[in-house]
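FW: tagging you since you asked about this chain on Friday. Here's the raw sequence from the shared folder, copied in full. Didn't touch anything.
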Amino acid sequence: MAITDWPEGERPREKLLTRGAQALSDAELLAIFLRVGVKGKSAVALARELVDHFGSLTRLFAAPRNEFDRFPGLGPAKYAQLQAVLEMARRALAEEMRAGDALSSPAAVRDFLRLRLQGLAHEVFMAVFLDAQNRVLAAEELFRGTLTQTSVYPREVVKRALAHNAGGVILAHNHPSGVAEPSQADRWLTDQLRHALALVDVRVLDHFIVAGGRGLSFAERGWL
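HL: got it, structure written out here
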């Protein structure tokens, strides 16, 4: 059955307009983005198939273009649109994060880092540099690694902090395994970076690990 034949209150677009985006399932939200299905499948059916295939919206968003293009009804145009939507979301969160004290709006920082790091197939280490009033100066990817590890050099982190004249820094990296719990190496590295940055009067305010759709905070665990 085509979506146009559904009861009006159950059509994804009408449902969003009357109940709000939060009332829609992942597949329904994706169906609005897709707009149309393919022969024999409505946009919602195609969206469900995509979510099932990739396992989550996060993994779909991070899928390489060649895998995305394999599905009928998708292709370069849809891939470009999706990447544009994601980049707009990242920029909107970055603007929100820069608008004031990063510590007074930790949700914006966490959401920004999740959108930047979740779903990646390799480890990435990044830093959000803050001024003395905890306002965001810059967010930079500093190191990139493999599926299971990346090499982080404290001297380079210190150099970037000095380049921005930062007073504080929020560290973040992802775990492609999907397990957010930090390893002993993660905790050791955090201590090394905290001590190295303290020598130049830069405070490590938090370290987030992004994995499995969540962001674990070292500060919330009492580890900083």
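FW: DSSP finds ten helices and five strands in the chain.
HL: agreed, and The first strand starts at residue 124 and ends at 130.
FW: great, closing this out.
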